[in-house]
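Subject: for your reference before the review

Hello V.,

The reviewers asked for a structural picture of the protein, and I figured it would be easier to keep everything in one thread rather than splitting it across files. Below is the amino acid sequence we used in the manuscript, unchanged from the supplementary table.
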Amino acid sequence: MKSLFVGNMSFQTTEADLNALFKPFGQVTRVHLAMDRETGRARGFAFIEMPNDDEAAKAIAALDGKELGGRNLKVNEARPKTERSGPRSSGGGGGRGRSGSGFSNEDYRESARQPREPRW
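And here is what came back from the structure prediction:
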């Protein structure tokens, strides 16, 4: 069983379009089109499962770079999902999140406080 990643897709591409695109190369057991949870719109990538490794390799060779919906598809073998340490919002990626300096409120509360100078 091979899982293929299909990226750089048009947002109008449907599961039926992908199924029809991969059928000439062999049996397709599953088509999973990634959808945005909030908008319900396609996210521009999908995963295709094919039971025969040779057929999957032929599909990759033939379809990588092929135009569909005005965009050149990126087709390759899907990599296994890596474990994440927690929810996305806790990390530093963008905006005003943690900077990754290792400082936490627990460290601050446990440290001895220095007396402050008067403000006059």
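For the response letter, the relevant points are probably these. The CA atoms of residues 40 and 89 lie 21 Å apart. The chain has three helices and six strands.

Happy to draft the paragraph if you're swamped.

O.
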